[in-house]
Every structure is written in C-alpha cells, then in structure tokens.
Amino acid sequence: MSAFHPTVRRTDRRSGLASKDARNDFQVDCDRILYTSALHRLAEVTQVVGPDEAEVFHNRLTHSLKVAQVARRLAEKLGHEQAIVAEALGGIDLDVTEGAALAHDIGHPPFGHLAEEELDNLLTRSGFIDGFEGNAQSLRVVTKLAVRRQSQRGLDLTRATLNALLKYPWQRATGGKEQRKWGAYASEESELHFARELVPSGDKHKSAEAELMDWADDVTYAVHDISDFYRAGLIPMERLASFKDETEREAFFQEVFGRLGTEDLEGFPRSQLEESFQKVIEVLPFARRFVGTLEQRGVLRKACSTLIDNYVGAIRLREPTADNGRRVEINPAMRQEVFMLKQLTWSYVILNPMLTTQQHGLRTLIRRLFEILYKAAKKKNYLVFPFSVRERFDPEDGEPDPSPRIIADYIAGMTEQQARSMYLRLTGVSPGSALH
Hints:
The protein is mainly α. The protein contains 20 helices and four strands.
C-alpha cells in the first residue's frame, strides 16, 4: 500500500483485474511490455544513427534491452544493500524497474529526436498545445494505443510500473523546464493521476524506480554510443586519450562549452567537468584507431564493462525526507563523467555535417507525410489509412477535430522503413506494390 493513500496499492490496475497465473502483478507488466509489437518496432528505429547504416550501431530496441538489464541490476543491488530504505520509499521491485526501462522509449518516433521536434511543431500549430514528446507518447502507448485484447485499451499496467515510467511526472507547462520536457498529454491526465496517487499530492519528483531507469538510460547511452562510434571511426578516442598531444581534447572542450555555455551543465562548473573527463579518459585503454583486432575488441569490451560497473556502483537510495526530494543520490564525479561521455556523441556524431544534412531531409519527410495525411483526413479520404487508424477519426459531438493527434500517433508508431515507404507511395515517387 502507499504510505500516502492507505487505499492505494502499487499493484492496482485501472481494470481492477489481478494476475490469474503463477506470475505476480509486476512480472505480468514486464511480460506485457516485452510482447507488445510497439516494443518490437524499435528494432527499426534510430538510436543515434539509422539502424540500416551499419551492424555496429545500437537501435532503439537493443538500447532499450540494455537499459532494462542495467536498471534491473541497479534494483537488485539497492534492494539488497538498502532494503529498509527501499521499503520506506515505497518499494524497489526488479520487474517494475525492468518493465519501465523496457517501455521508456516505446513511444519514440522514427528518425530520432528530429521527428519528435517536428511532430511537436506540427501538433502545436494544429491547436494541440501539449504537442508531442517521446516520454508522454510512451505513456500514451502503454495506456491507450497498444493492443492487448479487443475489450481493453492499452496494456493495463499497475500503478507502480506506470509511475516508474514517468521520467517527467507532469503535463506540459507554459514555460521553463516543464514546457521543454513532460510526461503526459491532457488526454492521459487521468492515467497520470492514477500513477501518481502513490506519492504525496504536489510531489513532482520521480519515483525511486523511475530514478533507476533514468540513470540506467544515461549510463547505457553514454557507454554504448562510445563503443559504437569508436568502432565506426567517428569518435577519435585514441586522440582524445593522448597526453602527448592534447589538441583533440581541447577542441572537444571548446565545442562542448561553446555549445552549452554555462546554463546546461547540470549545475557543475566547467573546470570540474573537464577534470572528470580527463580522469575517465586516462583509464580508457584506446591507444590507436579501432581496426577490429581481437585484442582491440577485448579491450573495448572490458573498458565498457568497467565503466558500467563504476556507474552501477555510483547510486544510492536516499532516506525519505520531509520535503519529498529526490529518491536517489548519484556520486557527483560519476554524474560528471557520464555527462561528458554523452557529449562525445553530440560533438562527433549528432553535429557531424553528414548526419545533419541527412536529418534535414528526414525532417522534411516527417513534415510532408503529416501534411499529406492531414489533408486526406480533412477531406475524409480515410482510405489512405490502415483500418486500425480509420476507425478512430469520427469525433464525438462537440469534440475538437482529433485528426492531428491520430496522425501523429500513426506516424510515431511507424518503423523508419514504413515511414519512408508511406512517404514515397503518397507522393508518387515510388508507388510500391499493390499487394502489400
């Protein structure tokens, strides 16, 4: 039960139905997420670079699976080492933490954050003030869009798993941080409220399990992207790690702090971030460009494993406080390292001109696809949509036109190949086959 609402249980589902087999309620949640096609789709969705670029890169599915693994290990470790604190915080369950990690990117649209930004712009211009956000879309998928049975919308997850999924447990605001990142649309207000009944009214901090999921996401993103892009030759780890010639490292610092200024450094001064990067780079054994020898592969795997071990050990649960603050504490030096390792991907990959020109074209694809589908919906030409989308278009009397949100759901639920193929069909560039 929740310490704040005596009649509220972590295992509650909106349907009121409980597990009918040997699994507990949280194991059921985890299995439902694992088996939904919304998760499987992520195998063909970009992590940083498109999944069809090369076999070395993580896609959103492999990323999510590794986030889930790290999150579960964090929950195991803290549940064992700090069992009393975990109980005082409302519980740390392995399956809740793993399930939330599996689902954390389940609403992520094709082509990465560029599609997220483009869909947000398109929806806000269409009058949907809460726009589009990947985290809010993930909540929408598991509560409304994923199909489990004909008589029920969504996956009917427990309060605890929904709460652990809420990286940003609020709706969109009109300014500040809560306008840039949010975890629920107005259409899922009741689901947000259902999940957040586990915490005191007005508390906007993540649950302990959501904190573990979030840290696992950061760690996995930082470490595995370095591995991907060092192997691909995009991040020059051998030059960054050199202490004979510091030119590359200094250029990296100049780019990072020139881009971020002093406002987006998570409260750390530049000097500390530079020092933390110097320390972590010293222990990474990257002496030369990656060519794929057995020795290099072994060294790289061991280095990644060591970093993850360090970052798993960097987190502790905090005793509950009167002000209902953060539920976990992360070693500041480790946070600084992860922050700077994540900047490597920005500096050398995301801002690479070859990728940015590609992204410009993909933004155009998303925008034109939305505009074409919206025009068809306005003319009630629903035949261009699959049957599962057509049946959602008729609004109730007095309701605003739902078409923009439905179309955003449709596009966000595509794989990247599906989005490309649909765009080519609708523009007549490549009509494809009439049989599939």
